[in-house]
Design a protein that fits this description.
elongated, 2 domains, cell membrane, signal, 5 helices, transmembrane, transport, 217 residues, 4-stranded antiparallel sheet, alpha+beta, Energy transducer TonB
Length: 217
C-alpha cells in the first residue's frame, strides 16, 4: 500500500509531450507541448483516491479537438483502461487543459489522440489468491479468474474488491460495461461466496486488494 503512484501521459499528435516520448500522428511541424499549453493550465490528472485504495492500474486512450479559444472540445475515450474511475479521471484531466488560442489545428478540426498510463511503481503487490474449491457450485458461473482485466461481456464480469481478515471479498465494485444489472449482482454475490488467501512464498508486499473476472458458463 506504500508504493508510489505514477500517472504518465503520452500524446501522439502534431506536438511533443513534457518528459515523454511521442510520435507525430500526421505531418506538420512539431512544437513543444509547453509552447502550446497556457502556463500552469495542464496538470497531470489526479489519481482518484478510490483507485489508489484498490491499487488498480491500466491505460486510457482518449481523443479530443482544440477550439479556437484554446479549450479542449469533444474529449472521449477510444480505448478504456477497464476501470471507469480511471477513464473519467483521464477525461477530466484533458478537459482542464487550455492551449494557445487560434492554433492551426483548431481551424482544421484536428483530432488528437492521447494516452494516460496509470501505473504503480515498485514490484507488483502480493494480492490474495483464490483458495482452491472455495467457490460453491453454480449453474451460472464457472469460476473466478484473478488479474483478468478484460471488460465485462457475455463471458464474464469484471470486479475489484478488498479481502478481509477471514479471506472474504468485501466492498466489491463491478464494471458492468452494459451487462444486465441482475447478472452483475449475481456475479458479485458469487464472488463474495469465495475465499482468498496468500500463496506460500508469494513475492511482493502483501495487499488486501484484488480484481478479476467472474466467468460465466
Amino acid at each position: 500500500m506504500n508504493r508510489k503512484l505514477l500517472a504518465l501521459a503520452a500524446i501522439s499528435a502534431v506536438f511533443g509531450v513534457i518528459n515523454f516520448a511521442s510520435r507525430a500522428a500526421q505531418s506538420g511541424q512539431q512544437a513543444p507541448f509547453q509552447a502550446l499549453v497556457s502556463p500552469a493550465s495542464c496538470a497531470q490528472p489526479q489519481w482518484p483516491a478510490e483507485a489508489r485504495r484498490y491499487e488498480i492500474e491500466g491505460a486510457t486512450t482518449i481523443r479530443f479537438e482544440i477550439g479556437s479559444d484554446g479549450r479542449v472540445l469533444h474529449p472521449s475515450v477510444t480505448q478504456g483502461s477497464g476501470w471507469q474511475i480511471l477513464d473519467q479521471a483521464a477525461l477530466q484531466g484533458i478537459a482542464s487543459c487550455v492551449f494557445q488560442p487560434d492554433l492551426p489545428a483548431a481551424s482544421k478540426q484536428t483530432v488528437f489522440p492521447l494516452q494516460y498510463v496509470w501505473k504503480l511503481s515498485g514490484t507488483p503487490a502480493a494480492r490474495p489468491v483464490l483458495l482452491a474449491d472455495s467457490c460453491p457450485p453454480s449453474d451460472r458461473f464457472a469460476t473466478f479468474r484473478a488479474a483478468d482485466q478484460r471488460p465485462s461481456n457475455a463471458d464474464g464480469i469484471l470486479l475489484r474488491f478488498l479481502v478481509n481478515a477471514d479471506g472474504a471479498p468485501t466492498r466489491v465494485v463491478a464494471e458492468p460495461n452494459g451487462q444486465p444489472p441482475a447478472l452483475v449482482a449475481q456475479a458479485v454475490g458469487y464472488l463474495q461466496s469465495c475465499r482468498f488467501g496468500y500463496a506460500a512464498g508469494q513475492a511482493g508486499e502483501r495487499t488486501d486488494t484484488g480484481f478479476g473476472r467472474v466467468l460465466l458458463k
